[in-house]
Amino acid sequence: IQIQRGVGSSIYGTSTFGGSVNINTKNYSSERIVRVNVGAGSYNTLKLLAEYKSGLIGNSYGFYGRISRIVSDGFRNYSESSLLSYFLGFERYDQNMVTRLNFINGHERTHPDWYGIPEDILKVDRRWKLETYENAVDDFQQPIVQLINDWQISTRLNFINTLYTVHGEGYYENLKYTENLTDFGMNSYETSDPTLFAHVSISYYQTLNDKALYRTNDWNYIITNTDLTRQKLVDKNQYGWISKLTYSVD
Predict the structure, then answer these.
(1) pLDDT for the residue 58
(2) What kind and span of H or E run contains 120?
(3) Fewer Cβ close by (within 10 Å): the C or N end of the chain?
(4) Strand partners, 113
(5) With contact defined as beta carbons under 8 Å apart, do 154 and 210 qualify?
(6) pTM of the model
(7) Would you say 39 and 1 are in contact if contact means Cβ atoms under 8 Å apart?
(8) Which residues fall within 8 angstroms of residue 143, CB to CB, at 6 or more apart?
(9) Of all residues in the chain, what percent carry a pLDDT higher than 70?
(10) 118 SS3 class
(11) What is the DSSP letter of 201?
(12) Measured between alpha carbons, how far is 250 from 232 in angstroms, rounded to an integer?
């Protein structure tokens, strides 16, 4: 992995502000290799990895595959995670050219938390978590397809072209309290029951001076707020072509 800091020149275009990351995949092995790793730890943590290298086939082809799986209940409460990723690569060798086709994907379902632990709670419960909604998750995957052609035109001249497509999809979900209905495209509504939200109902109904529930001419109450679960979706597609011509001098 090659990391370049921001505000500098970049082969991908004009000066970069946030920096860039270039990932080079592993070289294919000339020998066949099979590898399996299994690991386990506290809080029901389990790690599995399987890897296969075909070696050189017919002096022209190679295949590399890897799949990994991680699951864990997490140290903090309600912090389970489930991760799955794979890499499949096919390679063809010609006299002065190497062509690669890569398929990459990773799917993660985690229970993130953006809040720390108050000092008084930290002293007695280091696993405490403010978020207790069990489906407060970040669920995302981003499959990538790459076609790479590396052509050594001469001893001095090298030409690399990469075509790629990236598809991102997923969501995060959380439970929100006392949200205004109109903020989510819903209308206030009337009800004859002033206790739908138990002892905190006054926060959900239209009130008079924040002290008493407002009543209509029909003696109904008006609900203006509610608790709700919200999902924010990600659905994106990226396509691109990166070309790099290198000339070496003594």
Answers:
(1) 86
(2) helix 119-122
(3) C
(4) none
(5) no
(6) 0.75
(7) no
(8) 103, 104, 105, 166, 167
(9) 90
(10) coil
(11) G
(12) 55
pLDDT, residue 250, reads: 78
> Which residue do the tokens 């920096």 mark?
19
Judge whether 28 and 91 are in contact, CB under 8 Å: yes
Mean pLDDT throughout 144-163? Answer: 93
What confidence tier does 211 reach under pLDDT thresholds 50, 70, 90? confident
28 vs 146: CA distance, rounded Å? 16
Residues in Cβ contact with 34 at an 8 Å cutoff, skipping those fewer than 6 apart = 51, 52, 53
DSSP letter (8 states) at residue 130: S
Token pair, residue 39, equals 């690991």
Where do the DSSP E strands lie in the chain? 2-4, 8-10, 13-16, 20-22, 33-41, 45-53, 61-72, 81-93, 97-110, 138-141, 144-152, 157-180, 189-191, 207-208, 212-213, 221-223, 225-247
Average pLDDT over residues 147-153: 94
CA distance 35 to 244: 34
